[in-house]
Prior knowledge:
The structure holds two protein chains of two kinds. Helices cover 0% and strands 44% of the residues of chain A. By secondary structure, chain A is mainly β. Chain A is globular, with a radius of gyration of 13 Å. The interface between A and B is medium-sized, with 26 and 23 residues.
Amino acid sequence: QSALTQPPSASGSPGQSVTISCTGTSSDIGSYNYVSWYQQRPGKAPKLMIYEVNKRPSGVPDRFSAFKSGNTASLTVSGLQAEDEADYYCNSYAGRSNFVFGTGTKVTVL
Amino acid sequence: EVQLVESGGGLVLPGGSLRLACAASGLNFSRDWMHWVRQAPGKGLLWVARISNDATITDYADSVKGRFIISRDNAKNTLYLQMNSLRAEDTALFYCARENWGANDYWGQGTLVTVSS
Lengths: 110, 117
């Protein structure tokens, strides 16, 4: 199972928005609504930000939103804050009892 | 408070074996599906394996199938990963994580496995 494709980096100034894409195939993102997004700060464990394509766990700010269209999922961080600087990973169920992560995107707040 | 604490990592020779453990507290462990995820130094996340709450279902990434075994002891609230025939490319920080809503909502801090001669 190949990794989902994400841009290596994205950036924005405080207050701006940044959108990260996550491209898969019809065998993973295109077939299932089990798409999730994780934030990972340096030296820390990943933190769940989005599950089931567009749902936010309790405690995650509504500045984080996501959607899916076809084989591509996207995460948008609105009103960028310094604390949003981190690596972000998408994940999808890939059928046949497999899961696959994205390649990761480093978000920089300028 | 939910806590997942991994242990058992270390330095092992290529071809060797290691058993990781993940001690869970603050959740109803016997009802939860659990995962192992790894991250090579400076690299991205890779899904490794998962196990159903009653251990009747186990799934593996192709890269570890036949070499790694995921198991659990619900009486001890502990998840395990037996790793055999280790290779240099298995060097990584190994995380355990709980599955919820088809995602991983709680993660441990990881245990480092280094495969080197």
